[in-house]
Amino acid sequence: MGNLAPGKGPGLHRHPYAETCIVLAGRVAMVVGGEEVVAVAGDIVVIGPATPHRFTAIGDQRLDMVCVHASDRFIIESLADGG
């Protein structure tokens, strides 16, 4: 569960499993596998296993988003931009 101020979010990273992000409030700019996506409240974004991604809260409202990791433990690999 995340609640981020505009301009905040994690850098480029990936997980060895799928991740499903559900936007509850606010707006988010995401880069998923090199493609830019803007999601708003009510949108669901599914990120495939090992897919590089990052996201940033945008707009005037805080981002309230739930990210469900398809794993029994959290695993993250930070990547350099472009990686």
How would you explain this protein's 3D organization?
- The chain is mostly beta strands and 83 residues long.
- The protein has a single domain, classed as Jelly Rolls (Sandwich), CATH 2.60.120.10.
- The protein has no helices and nine strands.
- The strands form three sheets. The chain has a four-stranded antiparallel beta sheet, with no helix packed on it. It has a three-stranded antiparallel beta sheet with strand order 5-4-7, with no helix packed on it. The chain has a two-stranded antiparallel ribbon with strand order 2-9.
- Strand 4 and strand 5 form a beta hairpin.
* Helix fraction bin: under 10%
- Mean pLDDT comes to 95
> How many independent structural domains?
1
CATH class: Mainly Beta
In what order do the strands lie side by side in the largest sheet?
A: 1-8-3-6
Largest sheet: 4 strands, antiparallel
Give the ordered list of helices and strands.
Answer: EEEEEEEEE
Structural class of the helices, strands and pairings? mainly beta
* CATH structural fold name: Jelly Rolls
Features:
83 residues, 52% strand, Jelly Rolls, 3-stranded antiparallel sheet, mainly beta, 4-stranded antiparallel sheet
Quick structural overview:
The chain is mainly beta and 83 residues long. It has strands spanning 2-4, 13-14, 19-25, 27-32, 35-40, 44-47, 53-58, 63-69, 77-78.
